[in-house]
């Protein structure tokens, strides 16, 4: 078990309760999407995992250690956090310096630091911009710089806050491949997202937050049924599921692959050659 959240409650100084008794566990290597309407508490929950916010009550354990006794710098060795807005994260004068900042602060040996930086640049498609100032790049590319800076820290847990916002299709595909690759390496990935298609394509489990509480927690394959039955309409079904409904399919599909498989004809007799001249 790598993450354990128990009865987590958080209130803002205004008195607004953002999280109200949230409890869940995440095993090593899981891919978990946290979804819900605006104001449900998703980003607040994510910020607790890296110590940016601290609970009013309840506890968080990461890798067997309670976070209330750990500073942000110490938690950064275990949890890498990619902000929704990259401009809240980026500060260095070049992409390569930005990506190298984390591993340098963690005091990795120079050889390992160089290897991690080059790997992160390559995986995020940023090698061509290594010497460019991050703020001279587009929003989508800046988000990739923020992601690369976290990947270079080689943390066992990676938390992504709305990673697909402002990204074009190619960048979303790249991001999905990265999530799949992190999971294949045994790393734990959590994302806060409104992108339902990204969620069903690349995550194993969904936690639905509503009003600061967990409304549903289960495998991604069962999640569309929950959305279809939800009365408030705050969540949207994946595109392929909606298209399947329009086509009259009773059994839902969620992914593009599943949709194409449903369209493919099953095995049958070989076609009879034509005898016409």
TrEMBL record:
One Pfam family of this chain: ABC_tran
Gene Ontology, cellular component aspect: ATP-binding cassette (ABC) transporter complex
Chain ranges of the ABC transporter domain: 3-236
InterPro entries linked to this entry: AAA+_ATPase, ABC_transporter-like_ATP-bd, ABC_transpr_CbiO/EcfA_su, ECF_ABC_transporter_ATP-bd, P-loop_NTPase
Major subcellular site: membrane
Places the protein is found: Cell membrane
SUPFAM superfamilies found in the cross-reference section: P-loop containing nucleoside triphosphate hydrolases
GO molecular function annotation: ATP binding; ATP hydrolysis activity; ATPase-coupled transmembrane transporter activity
Matching SMART domains: AAA
Keywords: ATP-binding, Cell membrane, Membrane, Nucleotide-binding, Translocase, Transport
The family this protein is said to belong to: Belongs to the ABC transporter superfamily.
Protein's UniProt name: ABC transporter domain-containing protein
Species, as recorded: Streptomyces malaysiense
């Amino acid at each position: 078990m790598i993450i354990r959240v128990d009865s987590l409650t958080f209130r803002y100084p205004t008195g607004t309760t953002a999280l109200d008794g949230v409890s869940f566990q995440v095993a090593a290597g899981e891919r978990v999407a946290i979804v819900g309407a605006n104001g449900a508490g998703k980003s607040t929950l994510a910020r607790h995992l890296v110590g940016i916010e601290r609970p009013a009550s309840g506890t968080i354990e990461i890798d067997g250690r309670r976070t209330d006794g750990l500073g942000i710098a110490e938690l950064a060795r275990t949890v890498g956090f990619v902000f929704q807005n990259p401009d809240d994260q980026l500060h260095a004068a070049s992409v390569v310096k930005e990506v190298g900042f984390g591993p340098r602060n963690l005091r990795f040996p120079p050889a390992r630091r160089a290897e991690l930086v080059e790997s992160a640049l390559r995986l995020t498609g940023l090698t061509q911009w290594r010497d460019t100032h991050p703020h001279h790049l587009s929003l989508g590319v800046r988000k990739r710089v923020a992601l690369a800076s976290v990947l270079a820290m080689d943390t066992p847990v990676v938390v992504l806050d709305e990673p697909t916002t402002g990204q074009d299709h190619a960048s979303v595909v790249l991001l999905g491949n990265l999530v799949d690759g992190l999971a294949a390496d045994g790393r734990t990935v959590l994302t806060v997202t409104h992108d339902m298609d990204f969620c069903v394509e690349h995550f194993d489990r969904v936690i639905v937050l509503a009003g600061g509480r967990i409304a549903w927690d289960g495998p991604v394959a069962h999640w569309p049924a929950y959305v279809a039955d939800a009365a408030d309409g705050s969540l949207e079904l994946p595109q392929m599921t909606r298209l399947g409904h329009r086509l009259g399919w009773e059994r839902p599909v969620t992914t593009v692959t599943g949709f194409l498989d449903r369209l493919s004809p099953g095995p049958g007799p070989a076609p009879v050659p034509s005898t016409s001249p």
